[in-house]
Amino acid sequence: MYHRVMTVTGISNLSVEPNVVEVQLEVVTEGMSLSQVQQENADTMNQVIQALLQLGIARENIQTTAYTINPKYDYVDGTQVFRGYEVTNAITVKIKDIDQAGNVIDVAVQNGINRVSNIQFTVENKDVYYKQALSSALKDAYAKAQTLANTMQIGIAPYPIKIIEKISEAPITYKAYATMEAATPIEPGQIVISATVEAQFHY
């Protein structure tokens, strides 16, 4: 008969190749006339979007993520001097062919993008991999419980009385900045999908 409770933590890390990259592209425009700056910014961003569409990027994979208008000031001898407006228009582009990511950035820069704020790699079917990692994490917990039981020369119940899934996810983000050089190198590496469970066994 089992009377005590043993608590163990199972961990699994699964390395997978990313199959999607999301890039945030920005057009930043400055000038004294707000309407003129807005129009120039809009014209440039429309040109960028048309270029991306011609590359085969689906329109639903191009989304506006930020639009800001900031007045700019200088301080001369303690006096605030207005020096114009800065308009920033940001879009996020989802690229399903990672090999084309560098070319997408280059074309965007050639058409007016002057800031690439971040590049994020991920997997589109991440849930499938996470479930694999979750299964492995539970097996790891059971193996640890068996190891502890063998060390103490006791038996444990074959099934856990409680399982807690520990949720902790930190997306991998790569910072980058646009340049006018052709063939921008984009190296995705691998993404590690982790799963952790806490399991309790009677012994």
Q: How do the strands of the widest beta sheet line up side by side?
A: 3-4-2-5-7
Total DSSP helices: 3
Number of strands: 8
Helix content: 25-40%
Structural class designation: alpha+beta
Helix and strand succession? EEHEEHEHEEE
Instruction: Label the overall shape.
Output: elongated
- The percent range for strand residues is 35-45%
Mean pLDDT: 90
Termini Cα gap: 8 Å
* Rg (CA only): 26 Å
Low-confidence stretches: 171-182
Q: Biggest sheet, in brief?
A: 5 strands, antiparallel
InterPro entries: 26kDa_periplasmic_antigen, SIMPL/DUF541
Show the helix and strand layout:
Elements: E1 5-16, E2 20-31, H1 34-54, E3 62-76, E4 79-95, H2 101-110, E5 115-122, H3 126-152, E6 162-166, E7 173-174, E8 191-202
Antiparallel strand pairs: 1-8, 2-4, 2-5, 3-4, 5-7, 6-8
